[in-house]
Amino acid sequence: MKNYDVIIIGGGITGTGIAHELAKYDVKTALMERGMDVGIGATKGNGGVVHPGYDPHPGTLKAKLNPAGARMYPKLSKELGFDLRHTGTLVVAYSDADLKKVDELLDNAKVNGVDQVEKINGEQLRNREPFMNPAAVGALLAHTTTMIDPFEVAIAFADNAKDNGTDILTNHEVLGITKDEDGLFTVRTSAGDYRTRYVVDAAGVHADDVAALAGIHEYRVQGRHGNICVLDKELSTPISTVMFPCPSPETKGLALIPTVSGNTLIGSTATMKDDKEDVTNDAEGINELIAGARHLVPDIDISKIIRTFAGQRPVALDNGNDFYIAESETVPGFIHAAGIQSPGAASSPAIAEYVRDLLADAGLELKKREGYNPYREPAPDFSKLSVEEQDALIRKDPAYGRIVCRCETVTEGEIVAAIHEGVGAKTVEAVKRRTRAGMGRCQSGFCQYRVMQILARELGIPEEEVHFEEKASQVLFGKLKG
């Protein structure tokens, strides 16, 4: 039975962020994810806005961790090689009541230590975003808001943690957790048993279920379902700033979100669900998104929607709509990192430090790791290279001269690198998250089978055993002819 100092359960942006932080220390750590890749739960169904921290109520964990986490992203982007886009945020007001809410958010920003936030009038708003609804009378403008692809950040965190000695164990569903008289946990998984001194539960909507495996019933988690629409990169009413209407107590509202890759998202709805696995779209939710988008930009071309998807954000019930991050009250050494809803992606680097400190308070010795490498060198993005750089890369490896995804200009060389480097891609969707193959206008209509062929070849498996995303999600089930 393999022994660890810390086992992290859950491979989203929270769990991988904690793994990335602990990799800086001489600590034997494993991250366990039940799926075939990291970043496939709430992290995947996320708009990717790095909120600067003007929204959380002062005094909450969100108010403490959101601004701190957001400020860490520029440095992390440079070290780990993931994309970061500076957009700013507009919280749009349509009435005097909305303008009072803007004033409240400005006060929050001051108390939470968020700089470069101001109130602008309708004329200033339309000078910045000319397609804005003419009924808008003003807005809060937060200049420091940035955009990420949360799954890309989770992959970068996991890759760097792995390079620094962390075991990233996918296909490891946790089935049981016990603690012996010596204070050691045994974590029973679908792939075997492991022992550890500490457990960090970062299992998203299933965090309370994982805690229950250890006999802990200190909170409950419910999923908040959200539909999201993806628009084509070419819009007749382009926007450059993240736009929200004035928020409600439960949600920041239906937003227009310019992504790091050039698409625009409409997201997201907010419906509490009993079924934690329900990530299906529904017509009512999509129509709500369209109405919300038109409230912000009336002439937006809804025919440019190229995909819809949904996710669930984990909400810790009866917790003041806040994060639930603490050592268990009943089982020492078991750390909860639960209820990480919005602004979870923005907060994740600071959550990682907070959990590190909780582990230290629980007795974990944190000695700096010798030879720790903070940098990750991502595989080349062929579409971003100059012609001269592309030619040089093709001369070095001819696979970079074979275009697989025409919409996003993704090459065979990039897909092969995605499969073999870092926490390698083992599914069609895992390749998509690392390379954008299939994320373009045709939504993999031309490239998916070629991606599957490359996966089968590089993994040494039949094409029928290539999975789309989860286990038992094969795309092919045998030949009809030949």
From TrEMBL:
MF terms from GO for this chain are: glycerol-3-phosphate dehydrogenase (quinone) activity
Q: Would the keyword Isomerase turn up in this protein's UniProt record? A: no
Recorded hits in Gene3D superfamilies, A to Z, give: BFD-like [2Fe-2S]-binding domain (1.10.10.1100), D-Amino Acid Oxidase, subunit A, domain 2 (3.30.9.10), FAD/NAD(P)-binding domain (3.50.50.60)
Query: Which keywords annotate this record?
Result: Oxidoreductase
Q: Which Pfam families match?
A: DAO, Fer2_BFD
Q: Where is the BFD-like [2Fe-2S]-binding domain?
A: 403-457
Q: Which domain of life is it from?
A: Bacteria
Q: Which residues form the FAD dependent oxidoreductase domain?
A: 5-358
Instruction: Report the EC code(s) recorded for this entry.
Output: 1.1.5.3
Tell me the CDD domains matching this sequence. GlpA-like_Fer2_BFD-like
UniProt cross-references to InterPro entries, sorted A to Z:
BFD-like_2Fe2S-bd_dom, BFD-like_2Fe2S-bd_dom_sf, FAD-dep_OxRdtase, FAD/NAD-bd_sf, G3P_Oxidase/Oxidoreductase
- Please name the SUPFAM superfamilies in this protein's record: FAD-linked reductases, C-terminal domain, FAD/NAD(P)-binding domain
The molecule here is called: Anaerobic glycerol-3-phosphate dehydrogenase subunit A
Protein source organism = Eubacterium limosum
Organism phylogeny: Bacteria, Bacillati, Bacillota, Clostridia, Eubacteriales
The gene for this chain is glpA_2
